Amino acid sequence: MNFKIKHIFSIALISILAYSCSVKKYIPEGQRLYTGARIEIENDTSVKHIAALKTELESVLRPEPNSKFLGMRPGLHFYYKVQQENPGFLNRWLYRQIGEEPVYQSDVETFEVEDILRNRLENNGFFYSSATSSFEEKAQEASVTYQLKITQPYAMERFQVDTMPSPIYEAVKAQTANSPFKATARFDLSNMKLERQRIDSELKKRGYYNLNPEFFIFEADTNQYDNKKFDLFLKLKAEVPKKSIVPYYIKNVHIYPNYNLNDSTQITPERFNNKTYYQDSLFFKPERLDKFITLKEGELYNPSTSKNTSRRLSTIGAYKFVNIQYKEIDSALTDSLAALEAHIFLSPLTKRAVRAELQAVTKSSNFTGPNLALTYSNRNLFKGGETLNISTNLGYETQLGSGDNAGLSSIELGLKGELIFPRVIFPIEFNEDFFEYSIPKTKTSLGVSYLSRSELYTLISGNALFGYSWNANKYITYELNPISVNYTQLAKTSTEFETILEDNPFLQLSFDQQFISGLTFSFIYNEMVDANDPYQFYLNTTLDVAGNSISLLGSSGENGEADTFLGLQYAQYAKADMDFRFHYNFGKNKEHTIATRFFAGYGLPYGNSDVIPYVKQYFSGGPYSVRAFSIRSLGPGTYDGETDDDSSSYFDQTGNIRLEANAEYRFPIFSFFKGAIFADAGNVWNSKSNPSFNGEDKFTSNFINELGMGTGVGLRVDVQGFVIRFDLAAPFHDPSLEEGKRWDFRVDDSVLNFAIGYSF
């Protein structure tokens, strides 16, 4: 075994060396490939933070050499390949993706780089330093070394504000009290620019509407010292406009709740809470809109308040555009104060809309059929930003292929009404500043659905929900549903299905729990709202608790029977899960992504329940899970549903414990087409063994060896964020097989997944 490993390693090493040499043979005669630069610093021992300084200096070295991967230069390799006759489609495609033009020694202008290095040293206080360079040349490669001799840097002795007109002098003086500049600090031009921006930002919050950081200038005075010390002065540039050095307050706030370009200026205004509203007819009630507007007459201008108002108005859901404009009142300008008028233009969305979706659904469980969904929306229903959504769906599916379930079909009908209020509906009124970032929404919904599975059963279910959702900041969202009610009833069952329930008590118990009443709470942290961030984290934790409050109103069961509420058996359980994701975006325009995900969930039945209701259990497998296995076909544990002659296996491959991990590399192909290479692992288990599974479903310390694992490739059609996804995956570890036979890459048992949107 060791011999084989060494043999494989040797072959890989030889292949890498041969690959690298294949690049060198293309280098033109008389040229050397530039392999990079390094910096050597000769300095006084009193100089501190040399490592940080060296890192900063290395950032300005130009040009950058061709990139390397495991000692190879694939980008350069494919550049040379496409220069040949008939390079082939694959080489041309790879060049478009990762190709790089070669960087030669002749492209390096060392004198220009030396000037840049000296300039950067002076910006950091190292005046009168020197920079030289020398090449290290080989037969076909060359690198450069820059030798820097740096002297003791200049250090600040005092920092003070020079004379300025009032009132900006007092404002700037107050800000410098919090300045990071301290005595003995090294001269640093970049820190001075940051300090200008900081002072400008803080003064903007105090009304200085026309201020600009470029109006400030730093001057260093070394005349009083002969030991490389200086005094630093902050000054205003000459001829700064008068209106730039006085604070502005908001004199008037004008709001246009139903604005369009043809609005007349002759509309009769309405005053409410010291704001003026202009609407020819009542479109949005001022008392409802007022809470979203944090601008107030008489207060100093503050860009943060303006952004907050714009963001809050955008979350209502009734407006397409929010535009806040300020107009200076020239007549109000004095030596110490000026005034603004704030105009808030709100362009509404279409009040009524109908959306239709027709899908040809093909599931990994071989169920195929059409699905039609219609949604009617009425925005600003009661002239307070309310949104009414009424949706209905009609779906038909039939199972294709062979097996016990071939020919099974289902018809699903659904009707749901949802009413969203852009405010908190609660017996206790909250202070308007309690939710500073955004005002929560109150969501209510009521729905009913009908599901008929041929030859098995008919299921009627209803649900009702009342809850809140709000953003605590840009990244954090909370969702709280204190009322969440579900009711299900088996209206019609076949003899075959009755037999299935009799043979599987766990399954029967999960269907017997007709009434679910509880609350749900979710915490979501989402950094993926920053599309340009290379490192993105996402966390969604959910808590679902049912049956506690309803148990106080229910009736106790007799002779060992379950407790009931209004004659219905209700469920009691607690369920918690966590969905963690990390994305690393890199490459040109960050079009390449390494996406990872980890999911863990646990449900605990108690009190009135021995098992969690079927609709609340976890399952594994499918296009949003472990893609090498069909939907609900993985687990629980090592159970093999395909070898079970009992057709109940179609229903019961679920559990109250779920663990999953996914990793995926996403890359662009051409235009709207993107590709992926992925690997998934996961399974579900039961904490309490189901007798029908002979203990194969129970969670144990050996769970690692019971994970279903698969890998595959994917194709995505991504049109402005709307993604159609195809994933072809094959298992390489199947826990349902006997030990010793589980590790087997079964390409002939691949699963094709079709889905809308990314899996994670």
TrEMBL record:
Concerning Pfam families, the annotation shows: Omp85 (PF01103)
Enumerate the subcellular locations listed in this protein's record, separating them with semicolons.
Answer: Membrane
Q: Cross-referenced InterPro entries, in alphabetical order?
A: Bac_surfAg_D15, D15-like
Query: Which keywords does the record carry?
Result: Cell outer membrane, Membrane, Signal, Transmembrane
What name does this protein carry? Answer: BamA/TamA family outer membrane protein
Tell me the ranges covered by the Bacterial surface antigen (D15) domain, including all copies. Answer: 380-760
This protein's species is: Winogradskyella rapida
Q: Does the keyword Ribonucleoprotein apply?
A: no
Q: Which domain of life is it from?
A: Bacteria
Q: What is its main location?
A: membrane
